Structure formats: C-alpha cells, structure tokens
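Protein 1 of 2
SEQ + STRUCT:
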Amino acid sequence: MISHIILMGITFSFGVYFIVLKEYFNATAMQTLWIGCINTGLVLGGGPIAAITLNKFGCRPSIIVGGLLAALGFLLSYFVTNTYQLMLTYGLVTGLGFGLVYTPCVVMVSNYFNKWRYLATAIACTGEGLGFVIFPIIFNLEIEHYGWRGSMIVNAGIVLNLVVCGFVMKPCQTDRAIVKMDLIDASLLKDFWMFLFAFSMIFWNIGTIVFHFIVSDYLIENNIETGKAIYFLTIMGVANMIGHPFAGLTVLLPSLPHANKWIYVTSVLIYGTGTLLFVLDTTYEWYIFLGIVVDFFWGLQLGCMANVIIDLFGMEKFNHSYGYQMFSQGIGNIIGPPIAGALRDYTQSYVFSLLFAGAANVMSAVIMFIIILKKPRQQPQQEEVKPKSET
C-alpha cells in the first residue's frame, strides 16, 4: 500500500506542478503537459518492460532499481533550465523508474491471494487514493517553502522509500516460477479481446489523466482561488480513496456473473458523464460535488482493474495481460494531455479539453460493454499461492 501511496500520489498530482511550471517557464499548456504525460505514460506504458524484469529477476529487484531511478530523475530535475529538460528528467527518468515499481507491486498482491484476491487487491490499491489526498497538499507546501526546484530534492527523498518497500516485501512462490514463462506471450497479442480491451484502456486513460492534469487550472480560469483549486485535488482524492475498497465487495457476490466488470464499466460511464458536466460554468460547490462523484467512481475503477483483467484473461496469464494493458494505458496517458493542451492553446479555454476527456471515457465504457456481452467468461483458479523465499 505504501508503494501505491507514493507512486500514484506523485504521478497523478502533477496538476499542481502544471500550474507552477507553466507560469515559471512561460510555456504553453501543451508544452507543459508533455512533462506530466511522459511520466505517467511510462509509469503505465512501462508495463511490458517491468514484466520482463520481474520475470527475469523477480519482483523485489525490479522495485528496488525502479525506486533508485525515480529518485535520480527528481534530483536531476533540480538543475533543469527549460521544460524540454524536465521532459527528460521528471518525465523520462522518473517515469521509467515508477514503471519498474508499479507492475511488480500489483503482481505480488495478486499472486498471494485467490479466494480473497478481489478484496486484497482493492485494499492494496486504496493507497493510490490516499496518495491522491496527501500529495497535492505536500507539493503545495514544498513549493511554498522551498520553491519548485527545492521540492524536487524533497521528492527524491520521498521516493527512496520505494527502495525500502522493495527490500521488505516478502517474495511469493511465483516470483521465481514465472521465469520459466516466455517473456512475450504471443497468444495474448493475437487475442482479439485483448486488442479490443487495449483500445478501451487507451480511451479510459485519455479521459482520466486529462481531467486530473487540467482541472485545477480550469477552476482558476473560472475565478476560483488558486489555493481552493489545488486543494480540490485533495477533495477528489478522499472520494477516490473511499471508492477503492468498495470494489473488493464483489468477493461477497460469487454467484453474480461479471460483477467486477459491470461495476467497472458503469463507473467509467459515470466518470465520463461527470467530466462532461464540468464544462457548465457554475459554483465551486457544484464543482466539488462533481469532483467527489467522478473520483469515487474512479476509485472503483482502479480497485476493480486487476480483478477485471484476471476475470477476462485468467490468472495464469495475469503478469503479461496486466503488462499489456498498462502499455495501452501508457499510450492514452501520452497522447491525451498534449491534445487537450493543444485544444486549450487554440481556443484559450479548457471547455473543449474537458469535452474531449469526457467523450474518451464514454467511448471506453462502450467498448468495455461490448467485451462483457460477447467474450466468454474466464474460469477462476481455486488454489491460493503461498509465500516462499527466493533463495
């Protein structure tokens, strides 16, 4: 859970830095958003790379190396002089490090549990919601006291805790057994449903990442105080954290077919609709209500994700299928923000950027709805994986 707090909290709180860096470098929205989208794109799009490293060396080494690389990226960010250099340090180096951490953390939890896997995964991923709560506050305080450059040094120290997480995590039996697997599962690459699911993931991440990156700046443009606009991310984070564990309640519904998938697709649709409603020029209280709704259901989505993939493609192919879908998410994270930024720069308004994000989420839900109705159900495994030393 701690790794999720740090990794995803930092990644998805870039909206705070977006406001500061855009003003400091006098950069366009598109140019500044490239910094965050490269980072998040590699956190998720680095899934296949992480799958190879964890299959070859195990989960723990991948987490340790990733934590060190992410810290290095933050340290280098202190010395940059323009946004292009930040794209390399904050975006490329730190993003790749985070990518090496994220996949192994999810895989380890899913390999430990079978009967209680849905609940265990949802609880572990609740850390993401807690990260969304605290890191906008942390970033804002860091910038106020040390400036954005000094905050990069502080962030480097924070992410070194990922190295500690890698050392203390207990390896599981599959951590070495998966070495025998092929590094690339060709059967999944030929699977039509995986191909369709990948498109759903691309649209889903376009919608979610664009919204979280631009919403604070959008509120500022609508005459909301900067402090309120930044802490708006924290309010949404609370709703997200509450939504995560609700995804695990499907463990109490074993006789309900496709429970995880129906919860997921419904929450994506609600998230997209809420994003579309944000274009209404209204009160701060209305924005808070919409923010709570969309991020509660985003929390449900994140809590369901690993379990939906297991339901669709099976536990025996979870490592690769999770890596492939993360790669698809990475594509969405990379292409979404620059397009939204270009729309903002051209129209001088975030309205079309929000419409773009909401429409992407709705499209993702439509594709997922087709998958649920047409794809045969995957039979769950019954045996639980027991912890075992790597030695």
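Protein 2 of 2
SEQ + STRUCT:
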Amino acid sequence: MSSSFHTTKLEFDQKKNVFVTQLGEPDEEDYNVRKFPIVEESEWALVKDGNRTLQSTLLLQKQREMAVVDQELEAKRREFAVRMERCMTKQNELRVEQQKIKERVEKFDRFVRENEVKRQRALVKFQNERKQQEIREHELVVLKEKYDNLEKRQKKLVSKIEDNRKFERYIQQVVDILPEGYLELSDNMLKGVISRYNTLEQANASLLQELMQKDDSIDRAQQALAELTKTKTDEVLSYNSTIAALHSQLEKCYQHTVRKEEETLRQKIHHRNQCQLYGQLELAIKNIVDLKCRAVKVKPGQKPHTLLDKLSIIQKYLLERESVYQMSLETATPASTPAPGQF
C-alpha cells in the first residue's frame, strides 16, 4: 500500500450530527440522532488509524474484485474449454472431411489419369490405324498403277506377238527351203533354227567384242606411243634449253676470262711501270743523298741506310737549308735578298 493520504468520500445519513460528551440511555426522541464518540487522541494517531482502516478497506475491496475476476476467469476458462472442445470437434470433423475430400480428389485424379491413358491409347490406336489406312491406300494406289502397267504391258505383248507372227512365218519358210541334214534332227525345227541363229549371234558378238578389245589395245598403244613421243620431245627440248643455257654460261665465262686476262695484263704493265718508277725514285734519292749529304756516312759494321732512312736524311737536310735561308732573310738587306728557292 502507498503511504500517501487517500481521500474518501463520506456519506452521511439524513440524521442529526451531534457530538456526545456523555453516553447514556437512548431515548425515543434521540432515535434520529447519530452520536459520535469523543475523540481524545492526537491528529497524527487519527491519520494513521484512518490510513490503516482505508488500507484494510481497499484490500477487502481488491479481494472482492479479485474474487469476481477469478470467477470471471474461471467462467472464461470453462467457456474456453467448451470452445476448444467444439474447435477440436470441428477440427476432427474438418480432418475427416478433408480426408474424404482428399480421397475423392485422389479418386478423381486416378479417374482422370485413367481417362488420359485411355485417351492416349485411343489416340495412338487411331494414329496407327490412320497410318495403316494411309499405307493400305498407298499400296492400293501402287497396286492399281502396277495393274495398269501390267495391263498396258499385256496389250503391248499381245500386239508384239501379233507383229512377230510374220517372223514365225518367215522362219517356217526358211525351214522349208533348208537342205536336208543342215540341222540336227529335233522335234521342233523352228527351235533348231532359232538355236542356230543364237549360236551365230553369240559368235558374232564375241568376234565384235574381240575386235573392240583389239581396237582398244591399239588405241592404248597409240596413246602410249604419243605420250612417249611427247615425253621424249619434252626431254629433247629440256636438253636443248640446258645446252643453250650452258653455252650462254660458257660465253659469259669466256668473256669474263678475256676481261680478267686484259685486266691482268694491265696490272702487269702498271706493276712494271711502278717498279721502274720506284727504281728511278730510289736511284734519285740515293744520288741526292750521295751528292748533298756527303757528311752522312755509314760507319763500319753498321747496316746500310734504308729508303726511309735516306728520306729522313733528305728531310733533315732540307729543314736545315730552310732554317739557314730564314736566318739569312732575317740578317740580309732587302736589296740583297735572294729569290726564294735559291741555295
């Protein structure tokens, strides 16, 4: 319970409210008078007693309400149990109904499948019968065509037999005019003549075939001869072209050899001229060294001067002469300056 103060609504009867300070015997005139006892306790004690009384009252009230709620809950439980029982009953009935519906659906499905199988069988049977009918109709058409062809052939054969009657009469006439002993004795002379004709026809065919084979062999031989001639002609042409190419190559080699010989001759002449010029130059260098450079002598036991040594000696001599000339130019007067190149 909360410790806060609760406000309560006090209901008073339509009686006179008086405070009684002294209790006594009730009178008849005091019947309609409500008497209140004198309160001697403090305010806080009265408040605590009022709160305790109020809490007890509220507790009783809540208990009564709880009892009512429990009764309602019990009633609801019984109602819920009844409803659940009804629901279970309905669920069982629904399950039974669903099972019945399922069985009916299965029966119907089985019935539909059986009808579908029967329909497929009937359709297959119809298609097979239709194909058989088409085959029979086609066979009938083919047989009719064969019958028509055979009938036409029979008419042609009859007509041909009638046309061949003249040959029979002709063979009979031939038999009549044949000499005795020409044919072997037989019951039917016509067959003997025909057999003789067939023999001659076969001999003629064999001879013709042999002649054709000979012609074919002759044609093959002529073809082989032509091919051989063509092959040999091609070989001769190839050899001729090879010989011409070799002859042309020979001409080129001959011309190249002539050019090489001429070039070799020119080189020999040039080499001879070069050797002659070299000898002249070497002799001139030796003369210059001997005439102008007499101070340079070969010591005993020393190798003779080579051409390069001689050229070096001449170079030194010329450089000395050039230096002397330059010195003379520096010391000489302009009038007495000799012309360049004089030594």
